[in-house]
C-alpha cells in the first residue's frame, strides 16, 4: 500500500474538513463566544481587546485546520483497522459518526462544553485534564473492545457487536460515576450557554461527517481502494 498516497489523503481530507469546521465555527459558534466574553468583560469592568479578537480569529482558523488534519489521521487509522476502505461512503460516514460519538458526544455528556470566560480560571487546568482523561478512556476502551470483540466473536458479527457495545457501556458508566464532576459555577445566561453547546456539537459533527465523506472519495480517487482489495 502506498504510504505517500495515504498521507496525502489524510492531509487533503483533514485540511478540507478543518477549513469547513473553522468557517462553521465563525458563523455558528463565535457569536456565542463573543457574547460570553463581553459579559465577562462587563463584569470585570474592562474593555474588550479588539486586537486580541483579530488575533483570536486568525488563530481559530489555523487551529481548526490543525484539528482537521489530526482527526483525519485518527480517522484514517480506524478506517483501515476496521477494513472500511472498500465499503463505500455510507460505511465511511457511519464510522465517522461512531468516532464522533466516542470522542465527543459521550465525553460532553459528563463534561458539557462551556464558552471561554465561563468557570473559575484557577481550575482551568484541572478541567482540561479530567476532560482529556475522559476522552482517552472513551476512545481507548472503544478501540480496544472492538479488537477484543472481533477476536471473541469470530463466528458471529452480531455477537461481536453486542460484546463491544455492552462492554463499552459498562466501562463508560463506571467512568461517569468515578470521574470528578465540574463544580464551577456558571455565570452566563442559559441562552448563551445552550447556544454555544448546541452549535459546538453541530460543527463538530459536521467535521467528522465531512472527514468520512472526503476520506472515502479521496481513497477511491487515489486508487487505494483497489490496493486495499488486492491485499485482502
> Share of helix among residues?
over 70%
Q: Report the biggest beta sheet as strand number plus sense, adding barrel if it closes.
A: none
Shape: globular
For the record, give the distance between the C-alpha atoms at the N and C termini, rounded to a whole number: 12 Å
Q: List how many beta strands DSSP finds.
A: 0
**Assembly level:** single chain
What share of the residues does DSSP label as strand, in percent? Answer: under 5%
What is the rounded Rg?
Answer: 20 Å
Low-confidence residue ranges: none
SSE pattern, N- to C-terminal:
HHHHHHH
Instruction: Give the mean pLDDT.
Output: 85
**Secondary structure tally, helices:** 7
Q: Tell me the number of structural domains.
A: 2
User: What structural class should be given to the helix and strand makeup?
Assistant: mainly alpha
Description:
With 232 residues, the chain is mainly α. It has two domains: 1-116 and 189-232, no CATH class; 119-185. Helix content is 81%, strand content 0%. The protein has helices at residues 3-44, 50-81, 88-110, 124-152, 157-178, 190-221, 224-231. Helix 2 packs across helix 6 and helix 4 packs antiparallel against helix 5 (157-178). The protein is globular, with a radius of gyration of 20 Å. The protein starts with a helix and ends with a helix. The mean pLDDT is 85.
Amino acid at each position: 500500500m502506498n504510504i505517500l498516497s495515504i498521507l496525502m489523503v489524510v492531509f487533503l481530507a483533514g485540511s478540507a474538513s478543518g477549513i469547513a469546521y473553522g468557517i462553521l465555527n465563525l458563523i455558528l459558534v463565535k457569536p456565542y463566544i463573543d457574547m460570553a466574553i463581553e459579559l465577562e468583560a462587563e463584569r470585570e469592568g474592562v474593555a474588550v481587546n479588539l486586537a486580541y479578537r483579530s488575533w483570536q480569529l486568525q488563530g481559530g482558523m489555523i487551529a481548526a485546520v490543525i484539528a482537521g488534519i489530526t482527526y483525519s489521521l485518527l480517522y484514517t487509522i480506524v478506517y483501515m483497522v476496521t477494513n472500511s476502505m472498500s465499503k463505500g461512503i455510507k460505511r465511511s460516514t457511519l464510522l465517522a459518526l461512531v468516532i464522533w460519538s466516542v470522542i465527543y458526544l459521550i465525553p460532553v455528556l459528563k463534561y458539557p462544553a462551556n464558552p471561554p470566560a465561563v468557570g473559575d480560571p484557577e481550575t482551568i487546568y484541572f478541567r482540561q485534564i479530567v476532560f482529556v482523561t475522559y476522552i482517552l478512556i472513551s476512545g481507548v476502551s472503544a478501540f480496544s473492545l472492538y479488537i477484543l470483540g472481533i477476536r471473541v466473536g469470530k463466528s458471529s458479527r452480531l455477537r461481536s457487536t453486542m460484546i463491544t457495545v455492552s462492554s463499552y457501556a459498562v466501562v463508560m458508566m463506571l467512568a461517569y460515576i468515578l470521574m470528578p464532576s465540574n463544580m464551577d459555577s456558571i455565570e452566563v445566561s442559559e441562552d448563551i450557554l445552550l447556544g454555544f453547546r448546541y452549535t459546538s456539537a453541530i460543527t463538530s459533527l459536521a467535521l467528522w461527517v465531512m472527514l468520512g465523506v472526503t476520506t472515502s472519495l479521496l481513497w477511491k480517487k487515489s486508487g487505494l481502494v483497489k490496493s486495499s482489495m488486492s491485499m485482502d
